[in-house]
Write a structure and sequence with these properties.
23 helices; about 5% strand; 4 strands; mainly alpha
Length: about 500
């Protein structure tokens, strides 16, 4: 019965989290830890009693598997790079540790209960890292974070099928939990109880994040051949983005051809070798379908008014279900087109994986140098969307409003005034505009005050939105309005700010 000391030790470790200030300050988080500890101890006690009566031993062994340590290093490197530049991630780190402890306890208790043997290793680490790269429940809703971990291991244990004479779990464990949580949040309209949007936005803040993700994924691509999935998916999304931009003049994903959170999902979410097709041909189809699924998800999310950051989460479990059929489809295609047989089904796997990664590296370098991915993209900055709005593109006007509202919330009186004018221009919303002009005036922006006075005095000329007063941003607000998706502007020197404004499309910068 000595192996059961492991879940007991984990229960004690989780109990120690009650001393964490954030847990103490949030009653629901406090009780989440209490329930987790009690659940582990009760399960452990029942297992001890039942096995002692039957005389069956419990076995604990440790095995270090290559996929697990490789995924741990890749995802861990990303978390460290992200956390180095984003304080929010550093603050969340203790909660990742708590989830990891719970995951080890659940994995062990499930294994001992059903098989009497627990082969421990690094397996829980990439699972927990994967969940926390995409979704956090915080504050009063933290118990859902633990619920996702329970779902991860329940799904892995009970939702299985027979493939090739072996029992295998159907779904990527972390992707299943993320999918269920995403659907629940979309249906209930409760995205605000998570930090999902903040996660997706902040992942672009660290410098060269596209390159870091690419490099972190290379070892797994060389060993497991998952570049056969990543490259088709990336090219599918990029091709659609280029076509969309050519036909509409704006960007489908707003601030990038491929958002950083989607790029992360393309490398470290849907590429689990255990739940994806086995053949190279099946993996190519898998990647094409994932890229198409991300695009379709954006349209569906827009239609129901849900945030787009769910886009990379929704297609994965559906594709996991299709994985065996995609292998058969690839085999059928190769039989119909014999010239494809050698490419998709032939030997020389190691050489082909190296060649595929080399090709993917060339494609990535080309995308980086041509602006397909990287830190600099015109869609990050307000002038691009302002100009597109003035050209009559409704989607650009809507996104301009989002950007102005964000700038206003950050303290820009100029942005509050511009947002108020936009509300009148687009929706004839004088009530909403009044509130924005009031905020602008409170922040000391004179045109906002005069517009507020005009509306309060019933000036009939203001029925025409072009009659509202506007001006360029004041110097002290430049660090706010010049920012893009890469986060705050560090420069404070006026010359540097004007040079930055010039490079980002602001006409007043005197380019």
């Amino acid at each position: 019965m000595r192996p059961l000391l492991l879940p007991c030790a984990i229960a004690a470790g989780l109990l120690a989290f009650q001393l964490h200030p954030a847990v103490q300050a949030t009653p629901s988080a406090f009780w989440s830890f209490v329930v987790a500890v009690v659940g582990i101890l009760v399960w452990t006690g029942w297992l001890f009693a039942s096995r002692r009566r039957s005389g069956e031993p419990l076995i604990l062994e440790f095995v270090l598997r290559t996929p697990h340590w490789m995924q741990t290093l890749a995802q861990g490197a990303l978390l460290v790079w992200w956390g180095t530049h984003v304080e929010m991630v550093r603050s969340w780190a203790p909660m990742i540790l708590a989830q990891l402890l719970l995951a080890v306890a659940l994995e062990g208790l499930f294994a001992w209960t059903r098989r009497g043997r627990y082969t421990a290793g690094l397996g829980p680490i990439p699972v927990i890292f994967s969940v926390n790269l995409f979704l956090w429940f915080t504050g009063p809703w933290f118990f859902f974070q633990f619920a996702m971990i329970v779902l991860v291991y329940a799904g892995k244990e009970f939702i299985r099928w027979q493939l090739g004479g072996h029992s295998r779990h159907i779904f990527n464990p972390s992707a299943l939990a993320l999918f269920v949580a995403a659907v629940a949040l979309i249906v209930t309209g409760q995205t605000e109880i998570t930090l999902g949007i903040e996660i997706a936005q902040s992942q672009f803040v660290p410098p060269q994040m596209f390159l870091v993700i690419f490099l972190a994924a290379v070892p797994a691509q060389l060993l497991f051949g998952v570049a056969m999935m990543t490259m088709p998916a990336v090219l599918t999304i990029l091709a659609f983005g280029l076509i969309y931009h050519a036909s509409t003049g704006i960007y489908f994903f707003y601030d990038a051809y491929i958002p950083i959170s989607v790029f992360l999902g393309l490398h470290l979410l849907f590429t689990d070798p255990a739940t994806s097709p086995r053949s190279d041909g099946g993996r190519v189809i898998f990647g094409l379908l994932y890229g198409s699924g991300v695009i379709l998800s954006v349209f569906l999310l827009d239609a129901v008014g849900a945030p787009n950051f769910y886009d990379k989460l929704l297609p994965v479990p559906i594709l996991n279900l299709l994985a065996p059929r995609l292998d058969r489809a690839a085999e059928w295609i190769a039989m119909k087109r014999p010239e494809l047989l050698r490419t998709f089904q032939g030997g020389g796997g190691a050489r082909r994986r190296v060649a595929t990664v080399g090709l993917w590296g060339t494609v990535f370098a080309t995308m980086s140098f041509t602006g397909g991915v990287g830190d600099h993209h015109p869609g990050q900055y307000y002038p691009f969307w302002r100009d597109a709005c003035e050209a009559g593109t409704e989607r650009a006007c809507n996104y301009s409003g989002v950007m102005l509202q964000n700038f206003c919330d950050l303290g820009s009186g100029w942005a509050c005034n511009e947002f108020g004018v936009l509300l009148v221009r687009l929706d004839r919303d004088f009530v909403g505009a009044t509130g924005e002009f009031e905020r602008s005036c409170r922040r000391g922006f004179p045109p906002g005050c005069r517009n507020l006075e005009g509306l309060a005095g019933g000036d009939p000329g203001l029925a025409d939105w072009t009659r509202f007063e506007r001006d360029r941003p004041p110097m002290e607000e430049l660090p706010i309005v010049l920012r893009g998706s890469k986060g705050p502007v560090a420069e404070r020197d006026l010359g540097a700010l004007f040079a930055l404004g010039c490079g980002r499309g602001w006409g007043w910068a005197g380019c």
